[in-house]
Amino acid sequence: MSMPRRAYALDRIFTPGLAQVAYQVADEAAGVAAVIDPRRDVDAYLEWAERHGVQIGAILETHVHADFVSGAKELAAATGAPVYASRMGHRAFAHTPLDDGDEVVVGVVRLRAYFTPGHTPEHLSYLLVDPVQGDRPLALFSGDALFVGDVGRPDLSGEGATRGLAEQLYRTVVERLKTLPDDLVVYPGHTAGSACGKQIGDAPATTIGQEKLVNYAFHATSREGFIEGVLRGMPEPPTYYPVLKRVNKAGAPLLAALPAGEALAPDQVAKRQAAGALVIDARTPEAFGDGHVPGAVFAGLGPNFVAWLGWLAPYDRDLILVLDRDEAVAEARTELRRIGLDRVAGYLVDGMDAQHAAAREVVTLPQISARELAERLRMTEGADGARRPQRRRGPAVTSWRAPPARRRHRAGADARPRRRAGGGDLRQVPLQRRQQPAAGARGAGTLINIRGGWRRGSCGLPAMGSSGAHPALWRPDTGGS
Questions:
Q1: CA-CA distances (angstroms) from residue 401 to 68, 111, 398?
Q2: Which of 238, 298, 307, 448 is 20 to 30 A removed from 20 (C-alpha atoms)?
Q3: pTM, two decimal places
Q4: How far apart are CA 443 and CA 140, in angstroms?
């Protein structure tokens, strides 16, 4: 007897930095596809559809996102496909409201709405049903309700709503998720690196049975125990989350309507700064240390670019970019727009070469190697000026890794860097000041960049966190606060 054919094709598109996953489900025989939780820049979904010879006929959202700008409205404008979303989300743009049990038809395939509140009150997951293989669901697109090893945090809708959402999340786990088949494949909306949970695993998928075995949220024996366990050690959410909640309810402006930003000469950058614009230096830490525009904030273009700027960049000011090469402006602009930072006024054309050529002021940051740092930490200067080995435990060095909410947290771990005890010669640079070259001018002392970053155990330096290298700053004590 022949096996029934698989009626659908399934794929994922991962967005680094946000650790966000969108899914494409297609009935290739019917030439139609659905996209679940698209990001704002939608070319990747359109290209996928073209490669597979299908048209995007449905766009589904699991909830009102807080960590990235939804691309549902953008993709609908590009394809004409309808947007499907929870009736309880109260979105202000055109969409088809869904209730629990409603189905979206994608050729032969069905995507069945499955109410899973708790992370947000309106949250829907989607069960994949292929009638060719029977009515039993084959997969769950869980959005931010269920992750690998974690569940969606219930504290992003304001302090007053946290308790009620945590209770909803408990019922979702006990009454909705636990009752699904153990072999049901789960495709989550985020992997490790997202701040939408506190200990999200990095596997691309899991099963209900696996989560019953390893997910702490499935092991609670009471409602109160569940709530306490979910909220314990929850990292502080990024400051931009409430902004994007509002943006995604209203529907973000279409990208074509946004200004591209101008190529600016150094004097134009200075005038824009004087009018309130913020300069973002997106080069390497070493390049920033060698020389940067006065008042610039550092956030290197790379995996943590949007994570840092979600904490630091204001939504009510123009932004000006300084880059290693002018061609990188499109990438930086796309990254910023993914978190709704749309006010990119322009970029310093020819970068710091232009700043030097125009004889404009340049601020530098002292830089030393990890080996030099190790030597300085081992030695101290006495009253007679002689350098001797330190008798006390070495002081703190600030590790310039991902911002607190993007790091994976153990239960009970503090969300912010801590000052290490002992060694009064140095003090840890506060989180906000690590990005501020003007910190010394405000009495914070001299920041020193560790060239090449901090590598665990390198040059005899003490271990800090996980293995691998990451940028670091050191600040000698100069009497600043």
A1: 21, 39, 9
A2: 298
A3: 0.83
A4: 54
